[in-house]
Amino acid sequence: MSSNSFAYSEQSGGGEATELGQEATSTISPSGAFGLFSSDLKKNEDLKQMLESNKDSAKLDAMKRIVGMIAKGKNASELFPAVVKNVASKNIEIKKLVYVYLVRYAEEQQDLALLSISTFQRALKDPNQLIRASALRVLSSIRVPIIVPIMMLAIKEASADLSPYVRKNAAHAIQKLYSLDPEQKEMLIEVIEKLLKDKSTLVAGSVVMAFEEVCPDRIDLIHKNYRKLCNLLVDVEEWGQVVIIHMLTRYARTQFVSPWKEVVMAVAQLYWHISPKSEVGIISKSLVRLLRSNREVQYIVLQNIATMSIQRKGMFEPYLKSFYVRSTDPTMIKTLKLEILTNLANEANISTLLREFQTYVKSQDKEFAAATIQTIGRCATNISEVTDTCLNGLVCLLSNRDEIVVAESVVVIKKLLQMQPAQHGEIIKHMAKLLDSITVPVARASILWLIGENCERVPKIAPDVLRKMAKGFTNEDDLVKLQILNLGAKLYLTNSKQTKLLTQYILNLGKYDQNYDIRDRTRFIRQLIVPNEKSGALSKYAKKIFLAQKPAPLLESPFKDRDHFQLGTLSHTLNTKATGYLELSNWPEVAPDPSVRNVEVIELAKEWTPAGKAKKENPAKKFYSESEEEEDSSDSSSDSDSESGSASGEQEEEGDSSDDSSEDSSSEHKSDSESASEVENKRTAKRNSKSKRKRDSEDGENENEKSKTSDSSNADSSSIEESSSDSESESESESESESRKVTKEKENKTKQNINPLTKDVSLLDLDDFNPVSTPVALPTPALSPSLIADLEGLNLSTTSSVITVSTPVFVPVKTHVLLHRMSGKGLAAHYFFPRQPCIFGDKMVSVQITLNNTTDRKIENIHIGGKRLPIGMQMHVFNTIESLEPEGSITVSMGIDFCDSTQTASFQLCTKDDCFNVNIQPPVGELLLPVAMSEKDFKKEQGMLTGMNETSTVIIAAPQNFTPSVIFQKVVNVANVGVVPSGQDHIHRFAAKTVHSGSLMLVTVELKEGSTAQLIINTEKTVIGSVLLRELKPVLSQG
């Protein structure tokens, strides 16, 4: 076994080390007491035989056992030759497990791995995305410089792969290759620049991590991708979010002017004067909520809060009680909470905090009790009104039975008395008496220092204390000895008559002490205070030196200077610069050019337009006809167009804007020369030809995109376990969902442009808003001959046109409290989801709100106030209600576009006199619209949504809970789905589409033998699918 193998075993814990020991021992003594270990070797021999078998079932069983050994921490490296032979297996399941093994051991067994490098290269072309990604991971794990060119080529090819999962692994491989050969940096930067343009959330976090590792100083690579990364951030996995946020923070510090100047100060004074306090608590509320996590998370969060609370106390003052110490908290958490409570202390809450501190002082945790006493001292120095109260409380603690508490109290009192010593002579006398009982060196030294500083205020006590200390000088701690010497020197200078001989005695003892610091201090003091012919000029200033006015100690927070480290970093946690930490640069005095973040929309438009002949036939006429539409359209239609454009996705917005701008510029010159009559005659014909060409090009795009994605999804049709696919499935479906989403948005925009002269929308004309008969995807279009020629030979798969939205089969009557009558000062509000298409927009969820006036007076001017919605979310509010009579009730409708997520919509429900903060959070089942489809169409769509778009789980329940009526009632109660007719009694199918994107949601409940059933959900929106799976499972399981 190589040295690398031993090194890895030492790092990976006791399991592998034990295994190594077993192997070595069994080799030396295979019999007797070590027979147990020889049986392990026999097991491995069995595995080798199974791997060399001709049966795939035996090989698969062997690989499962080997991967199980690795998962348990056992060493399976000796099986490498037998495993690597199966890398070219035709069985997809065996091949997957072989690659899992090779990723683990390729770095240790490099020579053997190199023998199979040609197989890995062939696997990079495999139709299955998991095999392609695994081959790249194995290739990048072979740490041999000779294959660097091969790795570089593989990374470049993988960066252009259709699968986002493969591109993600390409980003991971970049970091491995850079650590192996830093000279490849320039070529790797080119790949990073390419991957930074990727629009998949799965790739974003990984490529930013590669950027931070390889070229963190190349800020210019971020310019064009800055806005895109900001938009993708909310959907990236949590570790990717951390990396992107850190990178964007560094970027912002170099590109934007300091916000502490004009803009933020203006906003700050605006908040100070007119905003409700609840607005400030958005960030603080989120941080406080994290305190419910485990102790490790609490520790990091509390450290960040401790830093922030020094500068901005108001953020956390409303959550003061959240930082009260619990008896179950570990000491590190208790100490941090004390720190935060001290930072938040003010005249208003100090009395409450002091009562809390009194309880903490009695804690059995002595370290925490000592920290509490220090906290009381800091409160006394920061808030002058309670200084005397704190001092008296600390004096009372001097009679405590616990020596540690008494010692800490003495140290804190000493610091407090430095601020106003003249007023507390009695306390100094009381502390002098404690010298007989206190044994803690720090406390004894503090008392002696206090007496020495105030020796003229206690002239009778100080000499007697010096006498007692001189008696036991040799037995004292070094810290105490130094203070005894200081006390003797000060008394020699102020009361030489009584203490001259005593001081000389102490100086003689110190002259021969074992500690050189004490010997040096003794020689220094003797030369300074005892004048002789050898004394220097300093002797005459001895009294000024020893009895000078000492500045009062400044009790500061240990977190005061941590704010120069970036919050949440290891450097901030350790309060020292860690390896790899990138410091935040200072805000620039003048903001750099913001145009560097503008994306060149012309290139995107060309990229987005399919390569068809229709566009090339007569571009001048096309530009002219479109510009004429824009110039002659009414104000109302242009307004509606702009609104729809702003609501559409960023990609569509960029592509369309380039066309519009070029069309406007080219049409202005022509419109001047054309007569009005010619424009009028051409308008209708041009409009029709434009809309037809646009539909053709869009449909061609849709077909191309769908054919690409269907190839990758068909290749990945093998079954994948739920636990391994959750993290990958979300972004795997993005390449498919993106084409459907963009096509649907462009279809809506095309419909609006077809009739630009429609000025008023009648209440009876609800066809544009009510999508009851709207198909899930576009029907199969009539393609032009040129487009058919371009698409010939491709595997086209479009959604069937018979799949339409149906009426809900069940509407639950459950309502949710929006505003309680006590919180709303008599105004109560409840909301529920009627499961009907929203009349305000086809992407909105319909919400009905019932308002009740429970008071005996009229409530006037009920309306929606400020809205705090996540990015992308939109809301259509109800009209203002002029008045609501006493005991009156009214029901109003709203529309909310939740963007296919369960994020909370926060807004204010206002009356004439008050505003109340309310929230609406949709259950995942209410984000769907039921779909009517045949069993054949269901199976067809389900076949297209396999692999990473499929999640499943097993349900166990009593047989009476698996009757068709019970299953139907439970499923439709949770989710707004339609029932699909089934020709099999043991299979129940349900179908729906998401309201925002129109993505299909297919639910299958398949009854098995006994009392079990399998719940399967197929959808492109894998996040919603997994949430729906978690909600349906307990409902179907319970009786």
TrEMBL record:
<dbReference type="GO" id="GO:0005794">
    <property type="term" value="C:Golgi apparatus"/>
</dbReference>
<feature type="compositionally biased region" description="Acidic residues">
    <location>
        <begin position="626"/>
        <end position="642"/>
    </location>
</feature>
<dbReference type="GO" id="GO:0016192">
    <property type="term" value="P:vesicle-mediated transport"/>
</dbReference>
<comment type="similarity">
    <text>Belongs to the adaptor complexes large subunit family.</text>
</comment>
<dbReference type="GO" id="GO:0030665">
    <property type="term" value="C:clathrin-coated vesicle membrane"/>
</dbReference>
<feature type="region of interest" description="Disordered">
    <location>
        <begin position="1"/>
        <end position="32"/>
    </location>
</feature>
<feature type="compositionally biased region" description="Acidic residues">
    <location>
        <begin position="723"/>
        <end position="736"/>
    </location>
</feature>
<feature type="compositionally biased region" description="Basic and acidic residues">
    <location>
        <begin position="614"/>
        <end position="625"/>
    </location>
</feature>
<feature type="compositionally biased region" description="Low complexity">
    <location>
        <begin position="710"/>
        <end position="722"/>
    </location>
</feature>
<keyword id="KW-0472">Membrane</keyword>
<feature type="compositionally biased region" description="Basic residues">
    <location>
        <begin position="684"/>
        <end position="694"/>
    </location>
</feature>
<protein>
    <recommendedName>
        <fullName>AP-3 complex subunit beta</fullName>
    </recommendedName>
</protein>
<keyword id="KW-0333">Golgi apparatus</keyword>
<dbReference type="Pfam" id="PF24080">
    <property type="entry name" value="AP3B1_C_2"/>
</dbReference>
<dbReference type="Pfam" id="PF14796">
    <property type="entry name" value="AP3B1_C"/>
</dbReference>
<keyword id="KW-0597">Phosphoprotein</keyword>
<keyword id="KW-0968">Cytoplasmic vesicle</keyword>
<feature type="region of interest" description="Disordered">
    <location>
        <begin position="612"/>
        <end position="754"/>
    </location>
</feature>
<dbReference type="InterPro" id="IPR011989">
    <property type="entry name" value="ARM-like"/>
</dbReference>
<dbReference type="Pfam" id="PF14797">
    <property type="entry name" value="SEEEED"/>
</dbReference>
<dbReference type="InterPro" id="IPR026739">
    <property type="entry name" value="AP_beta"/>
</dbReference>
<dbReference type="InterPro" id="IPR016024">
    <property type="entry name" value="ARM-type_fold"/>
</dbReference>
<feature type="domain" description="AP-3 complex subunit beta C-terminal">
    <location>
        <begin position="756"/>
        <end position="903"/>
    </location>
</feature>
<keyword id="KW-0653">Protein transport</keyword>
<dbReference type="InterPro" id="IPR029390">
    <property type="entry name" value="AP3B_C"/>
</dbReference>
<dbReference type="InterPro" id="IPR029394">
    <property type="entry name" value="AP3B1_Ser"/>
</dbReference>
<feature type="compositionally biased region" description="Acidic residues">
    <location>
        <begin position="650"/>
        <end position="665"/>
    </location>
</feature>
<dbReference type="GO" id="GO:0006886">
    <property type="term" value="P:intracellular protein transport"/>
</dbReference>
<keyword id="KW-0813">Transport</keyword>
<feature type="compositionally biased region" description="Polar residues">
    <location>
        <begin position="1"/>
        <end position="11"/>
    </location>
</feature>
<comment type="function">
    <text>Subunit of non-clathrin- and clathrin-associated adaptor protein complex 3 (AP-3) that plays a role in protein sorting in the late-Golgi/trans-Golgi network (TGN) and/or endosomes. The AP complexes mediate both the recruitment of clathrin to membranes and the recognition of sorting signals within the cytosolic tails of transmembrane cargo molecules. AP-3 appears to be involved in the sorting of a subset of transmembrane proteins targeted to lysosomes and lysosome-related organelles.</text>
</comment>
<feature type="compositionally biased region" description="Basic and acidic residues">
    <location>
        <begin position="666"/>
        <end position="683"/>
    </location>
</feature>
<dbReference type="InterPro" id="IPR026740">
    <property type="entry name" value="AP3_beta"/>
</dbReference>
<feature type="compositionally biased region" description="Basic and acidic residues">
    <location>
        <begin position="737"/>
        <end position="750"/>
    </location>
</feature>
<dbReference type="InterPro" id="IPR002553">
    <property type="entry name" value="Clathrin/coatomer_adapt-like_N"/>
</dbReference>
<dbReference type="Pfam" id="PF01602">
    <property type="entry name" value="Adaptin_N"/>
</dbReference>
<dbReference type="GO" id="GO:0030123">
    <property type="term" value="C:AP-3 adaptor complex"/>
</dbReference>
<dbReference type="InterPro" id="IPR056314">
    <property type="entry name" value="AP3B1/2_C"/>
</dbReference>
